[in-house]
Amino acid sequence: MTITQIQKQAVKERIYEAALDTFYEKGYKDATMREIADRAEIPVGLIYTYYKGKAELIEAIVEPVLEFVSSHMVYHENLDTNSYFAETQSMLMTLMLSRKAMIIAVDKSAGTKYENTKELVINMVTKHIANERPKITANFEEFHANILAISFVEAVMAVARNYESREWAARMLTFITDRMFPSEIPRPA
After folding, report:
1. Angular region, 31: left φ>0, alpha ψ -120 to 50, beta rest
2. Are 76 and 35 contained in the same domain?
3. Domain coverage including residue 32
């Protein structure tokens, strides 16, 4: 990579980080390109060299999180029970690394194509639980999956919104997953 390419990449990353922080603090609707530029310490016009506008910026922030969640839902369908718990915990901890983007997608994306992200994720989790839970729990009805999905998504988002530390998040996420799944299911040691 040349020095110019490295500099261009550094500017693009500054714009991304500035947009991430601005959307996180103000929400998509209330954030302005001027605020993002000021935070990135660049002229407003330079943003448009890298991104077409706010819509493309939020897409760059939110899309990787949604792709990660979606791909892990598919991956988890093929796991045995013990691996499932470990992989779920690992996925949730990885999501905590992108918690600002996750919060933007769920709470702060009004006025974008992502404004229904929470419902989308709840539907994905509902389908996932509906496919997996009957294998391990007797008398499981389809509506139970929706109740569990809503509770699960809200609980994970509460951890993201109130994040204190990696260790704290791990404890909270373990608490959530332990209560989401019946105790008679064998757990990894």
Report:
1. beta
2. no
3. 1-51
